[in-house]
Write a structure and sequence with these properties.
It is built from 14 helices and 14 strands. The structure holds magnesium ion (MG).
Length: 389
């Protein structure tokens, strides 16, 4: 090989390295006071926090990511700054699985907890970079099912008084939703009465329930049977998420689809529920379950076990919504997308274009972003307005 051909080979290689080599990671802990406080069986949620990260390569390509924080977002930023970033600077952003393992090695034990949620933020940003380099939306990088729109359900009718519930159901139906999720809690008698009320208000609508682990196993069997009699489609987190034996018992005693998964961190946890067939629908949250890399693994495992996949979104920001839309568009066993029907500035104003908003519902479906990467751009002024100082 001549000297000149060696030079020709070396130049593109070094340009390629610069495209992907990580030079800077910036963390932004954010907080928003919700325009309307939310109530579940576990209490009220007047505000939420998220961790937002920016990962920049030497070629100036910037990926954005989000980690589920809810509270204590500054602590998550510290985890990224002190435990993850030092491992990543100088690495090639395109080696997503390798970098996931590198970040996971910052743990000294089982993968889980806040560090995996911080890893999620970085991983989503790496996928954004990969899509921008390839000039393709992330759902196409994942393989794709040819979906540009995904079915969506209204989330969620609050565990409040009947008059508020009647207004919230009417609002969801007016927006055009064909599927609605209802929050239930204790006591059991009130929960069953509420489920019956919503069924009367929406007789033709596909209905599901989220109990946020309000019940013990026997209470959950009582509520689940009533839900099945009322024609409800799924029963989400009836009991605490770590009681795997309890979920097995529920699946054997209830003629209704059991849903869970938003509390899992990694595919190894999801696999337990898939292998024992206790779930009919699995709901990992991309900002908790290690980002797109690990959540995609869960979605693929769900398909292999013939279990429906429905991304958990909840009170998240626009980047979680975008990443979840890409996963929904690509997943073989995707079923329905969680669309919050309430205003959330971190979803509706943080990025452009606006995505995943209930006001954008078209025949019960939401558009998947089509631009390269996540397909959304940060609004700096909104970012600055919500940064926790
Ligand atoms: Mg839930």
């Amino acid at each position: 090989m001549s000297a000149s051909s060696l030079v020709t080979l070396a130049e593109p290689s070094s340009q390629l390295d610069a495209v992907g080599r990580i030079r800077r990671i910036t963390t932004h802990p954010l907080r928003v006071v919700l325009p309307k406080a939310q109530r579940t069986s576990q209490g009220d949620y007047p505000s939420i926090e998220i961790l937002l990260v920016e990962v920049e390569t030497e070629a100036g390509i910037v990926g954005i990511g989000e980690g589920l924080a809810r509270r204590g977002a500054r602590g998550y930023a510290t985890l990224v700054d002190e435990a993850l970033s030092p491992r990543l600077i100088g690495q090639d952003a395109r080696d997503r699985r390798r970098l996931w393992r590198l970040m996971r090695n910052a743990l000294t034990g089982r993968p889980g907890g806040q560090l995996v949620e911080a890893i999620a933020a970085i991983d989503i940003a790496l996928w954004d970079i990969a899509g921008k380099i390839a000039g393709e939306p992330i759902y196409r990088l994942l393989g794709g099912m040819g979906r540009t729109h995904v079915n969506a359900y209204a989330s969620s009718i609050n565990w409040l008084d009947d008059a508020t519930v009647e207004a919230e159901v009417a609002h969801a139906l007016a927006l055009g939703f064909r599927e609605i999720k209802v929050k239930l809690g204790r006591p059991v008698k009130d929960a069953i009465a509420r489920a019956a009320l919503v069924r009367r208000l929406a007789p033709e609508t596909l209905l599901g329930v989220d109990a946020n682990w309000a019940y013990d196993v026997d209470e959950a069997i009582t509520v689940g049977r009533a839900l099945a009699d009322l024609g409800y489609d799924f029963f989400e987190e009836p009991i605490v998420p770590h009681d795997r034996a309890g979920y097995r018992r529920l699946s054997q005693h209830l003629p209704i689809r059991i849903a869970a998964g938003e509390s899992d961190y990694v595919a190894a946890e999801a696999l337990i529920s898939l292998e024992d067939r206790s779930l009919g629908m699995i709901q990992p949250d991309v900002t908790r379950s290690g980002g797109i890399t690990e959540t995609w693994r869960i979605a693929e495992l769900a398909a292999a076990h013939h279990v429906a996949y429905a991304p958990h979104v909840g009170w998240s920001g626009a980047i979680c919504v975008a990443a979840s839309l890409h996963l929904a568009a690509a997943a073989e066993c995707f079923r329905s997308f969680e669309c919050m029907v309430y205003d959330n500035p971190l979803r509706d104003s943080l990025c452009s274009p606006v995505i995943g908003s209930a006001s954008q519902l078209d025949e019960g479906r939401l558009l998947v972003p089509q631009a390269p990467g996540l397909g959304v751009t940060l609004d700096r002024a909104v970012l600055d307005a919500h940064r926790i100082s």
